[in-house]
Amino acid sequence: xxxxxxxxxxxxxxxxxxxxxxxxxxxxxxxxxxxxxxxxxxxxxxxxxxxxxxxxxxxxxxxxxxxxxxxxxxxxxxxxxxxxxxxxxxxxxxxxxxxxxxxxxxxxxxxxxxxxxxxxxxxxxxxxxxxxxxxxxxxxxxxxxxxxxxxxxxxxxxxxxxxxxxxxxxxxxxxxxxxxxxxxxxxxxxxxxxxxxxxxxxxxxxxxxxxxxxxxxxxxxxxxxxxxxxxxxxxxxxxxxxxxxxxxxxxxxxxxxxxxxxxxxxxxxxxxxxxxxxxxxxxxxxxxxxxxxxxxxxxxxxxxxxxxxxxxxxxxxxxxxxxxxxxxxxxxxxxxxxxxxxxxxxxxxxxxxxxxxxxxxxxxxxxxxxxxxxxxxxxxxxxxxxxxxxxxxxxxxxxxxxxxxxxxxxxxxxxxxxxxxxxxxxxxxxxxxxxxxxxxxxxxxxxxxxxxxxxxxxxxxxxxxxxxxxxxxxxxxxxxxxxxxxxxxxxxxxxxxxxxxxxxxxxxxxxxxxxxxxxxxx
Amino acid sequence: xxxxxxxxxxxxxxxxxxxxxxxxxxxxxxxxxxxxxxxxxxxxxxxxxxxxxxxxxxxxxxxxxxxxxxxxxxxxxxxxxxxxxxxxxxxxxxxxxxxxxxxxxxxxxxxxxxxxxxxxxxxxxxxxxxxxxxxxxxxxxxxxxxxxxxxxxxxxxxxxxxxxxxxxxxxxxxxxxxxxxxxxxxxxxxxxxxxxxxxxxxxxxxxxxxxxxxxxxxxxxxxxxxxxxxxxxxxxxxxxxxxxxxxxxxxxxxxxxxxxxxxxxxxxxxxxxxxxxxxxxxxxxxxxxxxxxxxxxxxxxxxxxxxxxxxxxxxxxxxxxxxx
Lengths: 522, 324
What we know:
The complex is a heterodimer of chains A (522) and B (324).
Chain A: E1 22-31, E2 34-44, E3 49-53, H1 60-67, E4 75-80, E5 83-85, H2 90-95, E6 98-101, H3 113-117, E7 126-127, E8 130-131, H4 133-146, H5 162-179, E9 185-189, H6 197-210, E10 215-219, H7 223-229, E11 232-237, E12 240-246, H8 252-260, E13 281-290, E14 294-302, E15 306-310, H9 317-325, E16 332-337, E17 340-341, H10 347-352, E18 355-358, H11 362-366, H12 373-378, H13 382-385, E19 386-387, E20 392-393, H14 395-408, H15 425-437, E21 443-447, H16 455-470, E22 474-478, H17 482-488, E23 491-496, E24 499-505, H18 514-521
Parallel strand pairs in A: 3-10, 3-11, 6-9, 9-10, 15-22, 15-23, 18-21, 21-22
Antiparallel strand pairs in A: 1-2, 1-4, 4-5, 7-8, 11-12, 13-14, 13-16, 16-17, 19-20, 23-24
Helix pairs in contact in A: 15-16
Chain B: H1 18-37, H2 44-69, H3 77-121, H4 126-145, E1 150-151, H5 156-162, H6 171-189, H7 191-201, H8 203-208, H9 213-239, E2 241-242, H10 250-261, H11 272-291, H12 296-314
Antiparallel strand pairs in B: 1-2
């Protein structure tokens, strides 16, 4: 970790040193049930590009929100250009030149570019309440020209391409910094996620030019971005900085290991209880294709097997999970259970054949937050609790079923009638599992089941998966988390650009190394 | 009116107790105030009055609740009551009470089906579909009636609706109460009910759980329409004629009642039992202002403010990303 300095240090007998553009020291932030950041310190030197890398949930977004003032840290200090700042409000951050280029863009599509550039700071152009439109356009054009951004200030923002809008956001940051005037610190949050390679290259070219007049922090899933654009990188893991180092001192595989590289703990993944899969194939997928996502992917899932699916973001692994579970229809190929070919894209048919699905986006696809545990758990199980002449649901049977699963999966909740949105992520996830286990499914499709969960909850869920496999159930485990995949799976299928790039065996006493999996992913 | 109808309020997805206490507090406060101004307000005769005046509103609000529960909205309810009311008046002499009821409920259900299909198949937001339908239905109702009340000879229907067969309480009140009870049971004790809540609370979750989403969405609109048809029958029986303006105040009052009761416009929270309370608030407020001789223009102003106040206190803001 680099030396953290405060104030304006002097080299003995030498010139005053330029203070760093941004300096974070001991930043911690907790949310109910999770510690998002603990003791994070790093330094962004002036006119540098710093890459912030880490897994989902490592704390990157929280850190950006703290720097741009939308989230107040519990402890710690931030200094900008050597001056301590008391953040907690976006306008103070803005006044210091901090600007964020968001993943989900912060521009209003229905107004022209120049209005977006000066949005919220029109007072400079205001004469008795009316805006001097021409002056605004002229200044916007000056900013755009200076940055060599080829966009007309009067163009309607919504008509621009995504890449162009991103450039406008950057121009906005420069225009903002000009007002105060300070040198901008621009936070780029996944800027290339929606760009073509060509557009991304153009963006980074621009940044190289603009770096003489600004400092950047880049958050990106694409490690290639970090290598293309950054001088230094800070690796975050579980809310802590694991390393800050120059980019040219590490390669892509090394970086990946740095990000995911917690020691794989055989105990944690219950490796000792990993069983040999049976002979019987319970589910098979043949030649699954979906334009832009998957090309000719086939797989066989045996009884008692946990089949892992690895791949980088955009490799098609999530789409594969949805297709196997019937939540999305493939354009070609079929999924079959036993001798039955399932109807494409029909969850109903998949459920009838015993396929449970735990989706990645828990809050919109897994759990109904406004409903109780009882109602969530019984949603696909109403037949079990229907009773009496008119087939009316029996509230007592419903509650009993739910109470039983709360107990079995050790869901921490006061009772079956608690609204699910009041539960922690781990307990919500257990409810999603319970929903399917209560139905007696023998195949589970899991998309990143550990996402956002704390260690304890993950452990419970891993134990659950082992239990399912032990009883002859089969699990398709899609995950971003390599140690998890390696620790839990019998075999790991690696996807790259929508195709199977490797099938790696992972028997319990001869687990593959992360590098082996990573090299097939990249 | 009678106590809160049937069934397991315990197992409902209500989280915020405030949303159920508020309408009850409002009811108590309103009753106390109006009784203080005019003691005649607090009498069994006036209680029956309130019931008579709000039975049709309760039916319409129940219809609206079903659609609001799934997170959509049905703005055509009032106009549909008007139209079916006119059709009932036109058909009761020829087909009898049962036939006319079938006409009302059938047409109501059919209009609901059209609404539901437009929403789910053409993917037009329910707000716009049913706003258009409101205009269409009003136009058709005026076309048929030529703006005149439609009289009929039959006396069975008015007798059936206005008569008091049980405990001296007018039948129209019993119909509305029975409907509330049945729908409350449907909401909490049937697959249909659970699915409606699931659709409103999380459509993707529901579809992943194997709920045939489109079918149940359309069904919600069909039910809403059919109940409005029934309300049309009751209204025509009560008035003794089909009138082209009868349903005009129903839309606004019913939505106000639904929301005041605590059913969230975003869907998934609330239910028929809650709407019952909301209707009671509106009914008591309206009747109380009549009894205390507040003029009708002032009544609208007061009612408007009360609705805004009540809704601002009861809505669950965590469900709204933006307040628009």
